[in-house]
Amino acid sequence: MEYFEQNLITFENHPLVAHKITKLRDINTGSKEFGEIITELTIMMGYEVLRDLKTKDVEIEAPLTTMSSPLLAESFTIVPILRAGLGMVNGLKTLLPTARVGYVGLYRDQATLKPVRYYYKMPVDAENDPAIIVDPALATGGSIDATIDYLKQDGYKRIKVMSIFASDVGVKLLYDRHPDVKIYTAMYIPEGLNEDGFIVTAAGDIGDRLNGTYGYKKARPAKP
Question: Does the residue 58 lie in any domain?
Fold first, then answer.
């Protein structure tokens, strides 16, 4: 499929990524470890996502000589979709602590499965820098599609998407609607979604898993 060659970059063949994905899927992984793994995967993917940041050469005094060496010539804006996207912010901030952060608050209408916006705040004068939308699950694609629309309306042209899990449904939607936006995901899942719009073989509701607001462990039967 065309979008695999042009717009979708996956990391699932890396053994460390595969190992960490399994830990995320496991219902026995607690919220603390779950959040740490999300951060680790974000850092690992971030090196590739940020590969095209612009640099400039500066003169420095090295221990044995004076030389010209590159420094970053631009920053980037991290755009988490609340609330699960917050789990990926620290990973990118680890790579560049001065990166700015914008926030998009969306919830999914349970009847229509369409996103409803309740909060939107972007940094001032950041539209010329890259904007990295982060959301651990690209499922139906509706929330990320809407966020891309908001950013484009504000003049952002260098937009990328980072997710931990991405469904074929969501990837195809973004490719059809925004062929100029690259998608980076730790794990691409070709299977469809369930009736609630979730990726069945992913990690459940990642916002709940990160915050410990819902448990997936089955109750043990009472002892006789």
Answer: no
Given a contact cutoff of 8 angstroms between Cβ atoms, the answer to whether 16 and 40 are in contact is no
Look at residue 112 in the predicted model and tell me its pLDDT. 76
d(CA 1, CA 19): 27
Contact indicator for 73, 127 with CB cutoff of 8 Å: no
Q: Are 119 and 81 in contact (CB under 8 A)?
A: no
When divided into structural domains, the chain yields a total of 1
Which pTM was predicted? 0.91
What letter represents residue 172's amino acid?
Answer: K
Q: What is the CA radius of gyration of the chain?
A: 19
Is the Cβ–Cβ distance between 167 and 191 less than 8 Å?
yes
Residue 108 pLDDT level (bands cut at 50, 70, 90): confident
Dihedral sign (CA 38, 44, 49, 54): positive
Residue 110: give the domain boundaries.
Answer: 2-51+76-204
